[in-house]
Amino acid sequence: MDPVAQQTDLFLKALAGTLRSIREARGLSQIELAERAGVSRTCIAYIEDGARRPTADTLKRLSSALSLPLHQIIRASEEPGATFVTT
User: Fold this and answer.
1) Cα–Cα distances in angstroms (integers) from residue 21 to residues 2, 34, 48, in the given order
2) Nearest Cα to Cα of residue 30 among 14, 11, 49
3) What is the CATH number of the domain that holds 60?
4) SMART domains, alphabetically (predicted)?
5) d(Cα 6, Cα 51) in Å, to the nearest integer?
6) What is the model's pLDDT at position 14?
7) Residue 1: its pLDDT value, please?
8) Residue 6 CB contacts under 8 Å (≥ 6 apart), including other chains
9) What pLDDT is recorded for position 79?
10) How many domains does the structure of the chain reveal?
11) H or E element: which one contains 44?
12) pLDDT averaged over 10-residue windows placed end to end, the chain, 87 residues
């Protein structure tokens, strides 16, 4: 695997974990987040399991549903130890 593909895979795994952590910190189930974001629960599960790469539209929907700017979600995924606001 080339270095860029490796970096992308690592980022997507981190993003999946970040989204799950934020969802859980907000006390939301996958179903609740899916309803707020206007996507299916299966979509949330696939993203959190790393089985599907989220589109830009899906990421924007998720960030809105989580009341968190998308750049904060990305930053938390890129930087170990980065935090996000839990409201």
Assistant:
1) 29, 15, 10
2) 49
3) 1.10.260.40
4) HTH_XRE
5) 16
6) 94
7) 77
8) none
9) 82
10) 1
11) helix 41-49
12) 90 95 97 98 97 96 97 89 57
Predicted local distance difference test score (pLDDT) of residue 22: 96
Q: Write the CB contacts of 75 (distance below 8 Å, at least 6 apart in sequence).
A: 82
In this prediction, residue 86 carries a pLDDT of: 53
HSE value, Cβ hemisphere, 13 Å, CA-based, for 60: 3
What CA dihedral angle connects 73, 74, 75 and 77, to 10 degrees? Answer: 90
**Residues in contact with 55: Cβ distance below 8 Å, sequence separation at least 6, in sequence order:** none
**What are 35's two structure tokens?**
């309803």
| Residues 8, 47: Cα–Cα separation, whole Å | 14
* R_g over Cα of the chain: 12
Q: Quote the pLDDT of residue 45.
A: 98
Please indicate, yes or no, if residue 83 is contained in any of the structural domains.
Answer: no
**DSSP symbol at 55:** P
Range of the structural domain that residue 60 is part of: 3-78
